[in-house]
Records
---
Amino acid sequence: MGIGIHSLKPAPGSTHRRKRLGRGMGSGHGKTSTRGHKGNKARGQINPNFEGGQTPLHRRLPQVRGFKPVNKKIYALVNIEVLEQKFAAGTVITPELLISSGVVREIYHGLKVLGDGEVTKNFTVHAHKFSQSAHDKLVEAGGSVEILAAIRRRPEAK
């Protein structure tokens, strides 16, 4: 047979026998089994976070209090005073209209209308959430309020 995949072997001198520790003085790796004399490294495993007596990293860093909620909802916020200034009476205000007119940049999980300011015009406002004061002021001014279904998507990490 000629040279083939069945006859492959490592190059001469490239392989070494396994180091068998603690097999007597004649092996060359007896007595201390290549660990030296005494000390933590000779006796057992050293803590991978041990920094030789220096104050460890986890103690040097400041503690961060609290937690970050996993399911936090981020809403685009609009006050009714902005709607009063930007739009004419009788306008149907939707999230798409607010984006195209430059009032908000992105909707994220939804649009929430807040009640800061006064409203005199009657609007039909479509949004995902309303504060109680915004709802009352819009209805009192002769407008109407429509709650949209929630948006199911995560915003990009900032």
---
Amino acid sequence: MDKVKYTNIEKENKKLISEFEKYLNSKNLAPKTVQKHVDVAYFYIDVFLNDHYVVSAKEGINYTYIADYFDYFFIRKCMWSTPETLRSEVASIKKFYAFMYEKGLVSDEDFDEFRYMIKESINDWCEDCQIYNDGGEYIPI
């Protein structure tokens, strides 16, 4: 692993999270709501993307990363995962990528594909989460 690449991605991601927080505050959301969205975006970007793939937040809009996070990592590694918390996490990630889209950091095509993927997959992810939490057989795709 190239330490310089990792450091540059990490710096870029931290800057984006800070800008995301300012963006949410400019929307006059409650401080608790802002903090929740920022915490979720930070966890997805720093804990998941940085530690597991070493990719930037911009690359994180890709189906591979989103599906791996919501249909495997979040369900299996986050003890607080329930279908309800999964939906809440998805909402926060959607807000983050809407912010990136508004800034021109993701393309129309990538953002449209991302929204379509969420719409088509969220119920399956929630079902998989419930099956896993109930101790049933869970086979990730």
